[in-house]
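notes to self, project folder thing:

trying the whole complex as one job this time. last attempt i did each chain seperately and stitching them together was a nightmare. two parts in total, labels are on each line so i dont mix them up again. if this works i'll redo the older ones the same way
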Amino acid sequence: MNAASRFRDAPGAAPRSLRLMLDGVPVLARPGESVAAALLAHSGGATRQTPVTGAGRAPYCMMGVCFDCLVTIDGHPNVQACMVSAREGMVIQRQIGARRLGDQP
Amino acid sequence: MSAQAGTAIIGGGIVGLCVALGLAARGHEVLVLDGRDGDMRASQGNFGLVWLQGKGAGYAPYARWSFQAVQAWPDFAKRLSGLVDVDLALCQQGGYEFFTDAAEYEAFGHDLHRQANALDDRLSFELLNHADLAARLPGIGQRVVGASFCPLDGHVNPLRLHFALRQACLASGVRITGGASVVSVRPAGAGFALLDETGRQTRASRVVLCAGLGAAHLGPQLEFRAPIRAQRGELMITERVADRLPFLSSTIRQVDEGGLQIGGTKAETDCDTETTTTMVGLAQHAVAVWPRLADLRVLRSWAALRVMTPDGYPIYQRSADHPGAFLVTCHSGVTLAPLHATRLAEWIDGDPAAPDLEAFDERRFALS
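result (full assembly):
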């Protein structure tokens, strides 16, 4: 539990046994929870900046609708973090603005 | 209750609003009767091309009309920006047609020569084989056998164009009503009587039918032939991309906000629902042209209906039976917008300076 987060663990919640990296900083997650849930529990900070105004955004709807939880996961940009289960060793980057085009396959 | 209008325009899409703007600029009192949000609206589903290459290869009047239109676009955009604060994102950067089929590439090259011929060789274009193209656009797909390039082609944000036209009309004194389709229009006295689906009546001295596919049933009420059919086009748009795509094509364009719009399909149907099969085909085409697009996410897809005449060219028809009634329809409402907002208004007014539009008379379909 990170002190910066406004989310609190329910009594008896399973231990956070998975370790992800967010922009080089370790984030702990429970098996079965979404990446978005782990990010919210980690900190209340923004996990992306919008392409239009650069405003900060964090996971919001948690059900795949609002697209405010977009992050880069293991090199894939603009992934909805609320729709992906946390896995050990995931490498996550905040999504800053629009994605770039990938290298030519 | 009955409204009065000098000129009533049936249809508040890009075509109708351009005509309204043109007539208002000539001092007329204009009322636009628009339909419901849920109506078939080519103006809200189209691709936004300001496009010349290939247009009128087999019909010189259309080649010339399209050529004048793309040349008139920069001034038209300036005129609109003087009336309303809307960025149309007009970009006439030149456009490509990409081909993965050698026979189609060759046939299109012949079309361009015929089009240039119709334009007395004022059309500049290039035909590029794969090697030439790869030198200019490193990153082009191996399957692209060739491309044509026309420096006059461009694109615009079609939704903002529609919005800007609406605002410009209002700023020019045009009245616009909406939310109810006109169901009948008939000659009455010295003018016309219009009735919408809510029972509201309008009397007008002149009526211009710009109702898109709606002209198919409204046209015959004024004894127009109105041989119009729907042709479905399907499109998709991807997530925004920070890089600027180094080309514009008739099937792949990067909108000003960064997303890529991919489209260009044609299906002879009046069902405006997109199909998975077509979307897969569009995605494969885009990746064949530009392999770096392979991992882009598609955000939305949709279909819209083109308003097609039998030969694909516009109809500009003045009623012989009912003076004051006009039929205006085309499938290139974006490209032709600058002329619809100027020269076509002159023609509707019978101005001696108006262009001769007899080539777009619908009686051409009676002769064939």
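what i see at first glance: The longest strand of chain A covers residues 91-96.
need to look closer tmrw
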